[in-house]
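worker-03 picked up job from queue 'complexes'. Input manifest follows; two sequence lines, order preserved.
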Amino acid sequence: MKFWPLIPRLILLSLLIAFLVSPESFEFLFKPLVQANAPAIYNQGSLASLTLLHVRMVFFATCAATIVAVALAILVTRPFGAEFLPLARTVVNIGQTFPPVAVLALAVPAMGFGNGPTLVALFLYALLPVFENTMTALTTVPRAISDAAKGNGMTALQTFWQVELPLSLPMIVGGIKISTVIGFGTATIGSTVAAKTLGEVIIAGLNSNNLAFILQGALLVAALAILVFDLLSMLERSLMKWKAA
Amino acid sequence: MLMAAIVLAATLFLPFVVVKPNRILQGQGRSLAESLAPWAGTALTLALLLVALSLIFRLPTGVKLVITMVSLAATILALGGAAHAQLPPGNSYARVSPGSGFWLLLFGLSLATIDVIARLKPSPQFRLLLLLIAAIVIGGIFASGILSEISVIKEYSNRSDAFWAEMRRHVTLALGSMCLAFVLGVPIGVLCNRVKWLRASALNTLNILQTVPSIALFGLLILPLGWIAANIPGASAIGIAGIGVAPAFVALVLYSLLPVVANTVAGLENVPREANDAARGAGMTDMQRLVSIEFPLTFPSLLAAVRIVLIQNIGMATIAALIGGGGMGVFVFQGLGQSAMDLVLLGALPTVAMSFIAAIILGALVDFSTSPGTEARSA
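worker-03 finished. Artifact:
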């Protein structure tokens, strides 16, 4: 891998870390955005801990969703699960049309305010891209390759573990990548139902008409999303290379 | 099988409606059999058991479709009936809300209906017809007043004027921003197709824009729009202001640009080289070629973009309420604030219904526009 394209990301990463470690040293940048006596740096909690909570929530929800979605996709692409394929496809498509705010709002009566509804929404939205990509990858493994595996005397299970799954990995990671980026945004909306995420910073800014807060929340979430997106893209590319080798 | 089990569990064990002393307090659950007049409750429970059984056996798909759709309608009617039966007369504070049994029943039956429809592999025309029938039946149920005692409908009748005003606002936001996004996005897409170096940078910028969380983008636009309103004469006269509809509208346009530009570029790229060469050979100018060759061939891809953008906008317009932009989000956030869940439902259910209807109609249109052989490739 070439080194040069990494530089902007490393700069972004170090800026992110520097800001989280010592937000006060960036105060001069945000000062012009607020009225004279309003705080320029979020002061109702630690930005670093909110960032960690945000990342943790997206991470857990995406992991859970990945396990379920990959398992489901494997199931419906096996001969015995083929009957459920059209249903799974339609449900996945319909799930995508549900607006995030509606999912959050509808989950509140069942789970109460807090992290619960957000985890549910994150989980649901993460399911779809992973499921779709895994299914596409598994159904488009070239016929010649799986036939060759069979010709070598591999059982269906061996073919799956040693041929089909490894070939599908880059696309599965691609699905996880989309899910994670969507997740970072959705977790922000979760703060409207009192989830502990960076959305709190933005909502505090909206409520107190403090543009600096909104900007801090927005920049942090966007930086996280971009960095994770890049990291997973790198993983996807190296898996692709490994697959080609 | 699974669906049959869901239907059974829902009818037998879970509360079908919840009776609450007022709109905020927790209520008491009543099962389907308890919540209606004794004969009706028993009959309905039996009927649903039969439906569950019928789903397990191999019946012609058409018959199953009729069974599931009729039971869906019956479930909704039963909800209305239960509310009438359960509400203590003369008490205007008590509320009857749909309980978990109702939602699970609705979910199980919808899943069954979807499964049956997916198995029929319906043509676009047939899908639109089904949507029309469903709309007429549901509209009829609402118009008949059977549901009038349900909590959500009560919240509605208390603010029906506001409801329709916010609904209009919501639709205007979603559709208007989509139109503007197309007016801006298609030329950008064409330009990206013609000027190669522009392509990567334009798509990258729009990609990064999409990572900014929606609530934040709504908030961030307050400053520049407020500045424009204050400093450019005439701007505030046409409705540009720091808070309210303007920033919501601009944010929705910005989010819509990526799918529009990406799909325009992808569509133009898929125009066969031969088609363009033939057009050049026939002496067409660049502009003529764009209008009469490339656009018609790009149409399915653009329609796919309409679908993505419209569903995305209908969902995101809910967030506009946070910055005073109106829309159905007003009821959702008001309801969350008062912890009045019926009010939340009043905002959320129409939003879900709208995106659902948009998805079905546009899905059918996309299928119409792709004649067999030329597959739409959307980004």
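worker-03 released lock.
DSSP finds 16 helices and three strands in chain B.
The two ends of chain B are 37 Å apart (CA to CA).
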